[in-house]
Amino acid sequence: MTLTTTPTIEGHPVREYKGVVTGETIIGANVIKDFMAGLTDFFGGRSNTYEKVLIEAKDTAMKEMMQRAQMMGANAIVGIDIDYETVGQSSSMLMVSTSGTAVVI
Asked: Where is 17: in which H helix or E strand?
């Protein structure tokens, strides 16, 4: 499946619009990850622990969106938008939502 944030795919005209498609995931970071991120915050540098959680959440939301597009008969998604939010008590969870337009190219 072809995925893009742009509204078109160069050299591949859209033959059919299937509709808006979304994917969502909410993922929590556990106490150990919070502790390790705290050390990174204290000593400086990048938090690989949280980066991995962020990547996992994004990948899960994208896969869900692709599955929904395939069920609609699409072979591409254009105009993809990815949003990140913290949710839950103490903002302890990360929500990633993706959206785009399912199309046939």
From this structure: strand 16-28
| Contact status, residue 97 vs residue 8, Cβ threshold 8 Å | no
Contact between 18 and 69 under an 8 Å Cβ cutoff? The reply is yes
CA angle at 55 for the pair 100 and 27, rounded to the nearest 5°: 90
pLDDT, one tens digit per residue, over 65-88 is: 999 999 999 999 999 999 998 887
For the beta carbon of residue 16, count every other beta carbon within 10 angstroms.
Answer: 11
CA distance 30 to 62: 23
The total number of residues shown for the chain amounts to 105
pTM for this entry: 0.79
pLDDT tens digits, 5-61: 999 999 999 999 999 999 999 987 654 455 445 545 545 556 567 778 888 999 999
DSSP summary character for residue 9: B
* Cα gap 18→35, rounded to integer Å: 45
User: Which residues are 24's β-sheet partners?
Assistant: 97
